Amino acid sequence: MSKSSLSRRCEQIGFPDPNPKWWAGFPTCPVEPIAFSDVIPTIDGVNAFGYNSRMGTPSLYIVATPIGNLEDISLRALRVLREVKLIAAEDTRKTRTLLSAYDIRTPLTSYHEHNKIAKRAYLLDRLKDRDVALVSEAGMPGLSDPGYELINAAIQSGIPVVPVPGASAAVTALVISGLPTDRFLYLGFLPHRPGERRRLLESVAEERETLVLFESPHRLGAALADIRLVLGDRRLAVCRELTKLHEEVFRGSVSQAIEHFTAPRGEFTLVIAGKTETAAPGLTKDIEAALRQMRESGMTTREAVSKLAAETGLSRKELYQAWLRLTREA
Fold first, then answer.
1. Where are the domains of the chain?
2. I need a labelling partner for 290 at 20 to 30 A (CA). Which of 49, 94, 159, 197 fits?
3. Helix (H, G, I), strand (E, B), or coil: what is residue 12?
4. Can you give the pLDDT at residue 16?
5. Which CATH number fits domain 170-272: 3.30.950.10, 3.40.50.150, 2.60.40.10, 3.40.50.720?
6. Residue 102: is it exposed, middle or buried by C-beta count within 10 angstroms (0-12/13-18/19+)?
7. pLDDT of res. 22
8. Looking at residue 109, what is its pLDDT?
9. Residue 89, helix vs strand vs coil
10. What's the confidence (pLDDT) of residue 48?
11. Distance between terminal CA atoms of the chain?
């Protein structure tokens, strides 16, 4: 929010223009930083932005942080991170970089996949008499990270859980993908093992919703190959390093993405078109016989499906499903 828009907001709700020294909260300003609550006007404990500044029952704040660009942090998130007594971070190194950029000196403690059980009791104990903020490595905590377990434990313990929304890689990728956004299905990270990955893809093959998922660079090629094998050569958007210096959004078919990303680097979010009705060549008895013969000869699923797809024009998805049926019948 610019200074002029902040002034307009204050005018709308009947508050005077905030003290200029408020802007010292940003690292580019030469003035010594001060707490936001010192200069944002309040009436009965509620400030110009609707935040209840009276510290009552200790709460767990679920704070979204930037997915790349450090400027993508809300004013409310900065204030909450300043005011809580402890920040539980999935990656303390990355969180420390963010806090240093805004001169926030709140104590940090780690909370990640490998220590979540031991740290859960510690954090619940801290929440008895103080506010705690939960932040993930990037984006909104609780999505594809251990934040879910702590949030659920806090709810079960009667501790207020307060969301502080912000950046999300999944939603960001979806809205710039060019694919339908009215309904979507979030899959998180695909399983590492090929068999488990294919079974998950099979479970959503008939879904018409747009699919959103994460993948690491060293598994991207194998994941795209399985997506083409199970779902067919659908439209998709492959979003790399969103909001960062080397941001890239590739739009095209799965086959085109495989050809494009020969040496992938960075963090990837994939947005895949849901199932659509398309006219395609039918599966004949001759093709089934060829599939059966390839299977009995020891040819791999991928080799057989790719070979017949090129020869017959059938979709890889249909051939793959036929292969599975023949396997079950054997």
1. 3-166, 170-272, 285-320
2. 197
3. helix
4. 46
5. 3.30.950.10
6. middle
7. 38
8. 97
9. strand
10. 45
11. 64
In the numeric block, which tokens belong to residue 102? 């805004």
Sheet holding 235-240, edge to edge: 184-189, 210-215, 268-272, 235-240, 248-253
Nearest-angstrom CA–CA distance, 199 and 193:
10
Q: What is the pTM of this model?
A: 0.71
Report the distance separating Cα 241 and Cα 135, nearest Å: 19
Q: Tokens 């979709």 — which residue?
A: 315
The topology under which CATH files domain 3-166 is Cobalt-precorrin-4 Transmethylase; domain 1 (3.40.1010)
Beta strands in the chain (DSSP E): 42-43, 46-47, 60-63, 86-89, 108-110, 132-135, 161-164, 184-189, 210-215, 235-240, 248-253, 268-272
Assigned token pair, 276: 């659509």
